From TrEMBL:
Cofactor(s) listed: pyridoxal 5'-phosphate
Aminotransferase class V domain residues: 29-415
EC number: 2.8.1.7
Gene Ontology BP term (one): cysteine metabolic process
Molecular-function annotations in GO: cysteine desulfurase activity; pyridoxal phosphate binding
UniProt organism field: Paenarthrobacter aurescens (strain TC1)
Catalysed reactions, as listed in the record: (sulfur carrier)-H + L-cysteine = (sulfur carrier)-SH + L-alanine
Name of the protein this chain belongs to: Cysteine desulfurase
Length: 428
């Protein structure tokens, strides 16, 4: 396996038409892939080709187009399942990772009601959450992996607890060992922080949950697009990620769940295509994955996501991870050398994904973002859907630069050069 270099990345960049443009008269430097990645031509063409050649409702027709649409839709599911080491039956299409997390939350809050009425069998009783139970998250979570659990606690009477972070942006594992206890029914945490860049110790956290029989939910939005993730090796019960962060269109995401759990969970959305028998009084539901896919699905987006997965696989996900790791270290080391810059998360030299969020003394993050945009550099500003984490860090907002396989070291250096002039420009 040969390492990626700038020459290869420049060739890769040619596959992404949106990157070939000027912004405010400057060549676009896109450093906001942590929010939304760009799409290669092959992905754009895959979605277009679907509409041009085989657009039809899946699972619902015997005519030629419907059969072809169903085949490519389900082939896409298998491709994505293989990418994360899952089984076909364990891979559920969602609109995004947020929907996947809400699906789990609502299913678990309905588990007690179903079990009380004898629906779902004895296995469902183990999933029921109620008063006296505890749900554990972390202080670094994206709102999408926090608010659904707040609401689950509210609906069920359970208690929500969280694992705190250190000043260096890592989890307090000593505290976690005490927080994850006999009352814990669910532990939800991010694989990699979208603000700190921290890669969390999945094995240690899963071991804590297993000791007390708790379910594990992994937010893999910032890991699956950037590094090899095998859900079976990680031994998580559920995982979610979004297509738009991994070269695919918006509007499609994935929920992975262990099959024995998915097959007994109450469905989140109900309607057509996810049922076996319906009377005027009640319905019986299909097993997963169709159990959670009511109505017309995001067919073209799923096909395009599979194409994106193939693009990442052909490039080499381990090669991409190594390249982004180097870019991330270059970002942090460079930012640390600029006066008045505070980088949040692990310091240079410590493991992190290819992003860095920072505060500029005396200059609001939104002004920093505008300053960089004037120079053709796209970054993210604000609280990045992580207000509690920013509050813990004593900040209201940060500026975040995030890399992907189409970024060069020159992109990072141009960004660092621009940031070095921010305080002087604003006389801070």
């Amino acid at each position: 396996m040969h390492a990626m270099d700038n020459a290869e990345v420049l060739r890769i960049r040619n596959d992404f038409p949106v990157l070939d443009q000027l912004v405010n008269g400057k060549p676009l430097i896109y450093l906001d892939s942590g929010a939304t990645s760009q799409n290669p031509l092959s992905v754009i063409e895959a979605e277009q080709e679907y509409y041009e050649q085989r657009n039809a409702a899946v699972h619902r027709g015997a005519h030629h187009l419907a059969v072809e649409a169903t085949e490519v839709f389900e082939d896409a599911r298998q491709t994505v399942a293989d990418f994360i080491g899952a089984q076909y039956e364990e891979t559920v299409w969602t609109s995004n990772a947020t929907e996947g997390l809400n699906l789990i939350s609502y299913a678990l809050s309905n588990a007690a009601l179903w079990a009380a009425q004898g629906r779902g069998g004895s296995a469902l009783k183990d999933l029921a959450i109620g008063p006296g139970d505890e749900i554990v998250v972390t202080e670094m979570e994206h709102h999408a992996n926090l608010i659904p659990w707040q609401e689950l606690a509210f609906r069920t009477g359970a208690t929500l607890k969280y694992i705190p972070v250190t000043d260096q942006g890592t989890l307090r594992l000593d505290a976690a060992a005490d927080i994850v206890g006999e009352r814990t029914k669910l532990l939800a945490f991010t694989h990699a922080s979208n603000v700190l860049g921290t890669i969390n110790p999945v094995a240690e956290l899963v071991a804590m949950a297993r000791r007390v029989g708790a379910l594990v939910v992994l937010d893999a939005c910032q890991s699956v697009p950037h590094m090899a993730v095998d859900v079976k090796d990680l031994d998580v019960d559920f995982a979610v990620f979004s297509g738009h962060k991994m070269l695919a269109p918006t509007g499609v995401g994935v929920l992975y769940g262990k099959q024995d759990l998915l097959d007994v969970m109450p469905p989140f959305l109900t309607g057509g295509s996810m049922i076996t028998t319906v009377t005027m009084e009640r319905a019986e539901y299909l097993p997963a994955p169709q159990r959670f896919e009511a109505g017309t699905q995001r067919i073209s987006q799923a096909v395009a996501l599979a194409t994106a997965v193939n693009y990442l696989t052909e490039t080499g996900i381990d090669r991409i991870h190594a390249w982004e790791t180097a870019l991330g270290q270059r970002l942090v080391k460079g930012l640390e050398s600029i006066d008045g810059i505070r980088v949040v998360g692990p310091a240079s030299g410590a493991e992190r994904i290819g992003l860095a969020a920072f505060d500029v003394a005396g200059v609001h993050a939104h002004d920093v973002g505008q300053f960089l945009d004037d120079r053709g550099i796209a970054v993210r500003v604000g609280h990045h859907c992580a207000q509690p984490l920013h509050r813990r860090l004593g900040l209201t907002a940060t500026t975040r630069a995030s890399t992907y396989l189409y970024n060069t070291t020159d992109d990072v250096d141009a960004f660092l050069d621009a940031v070095s002039g921010v305080r002087a420009y604003f006389q801070a």
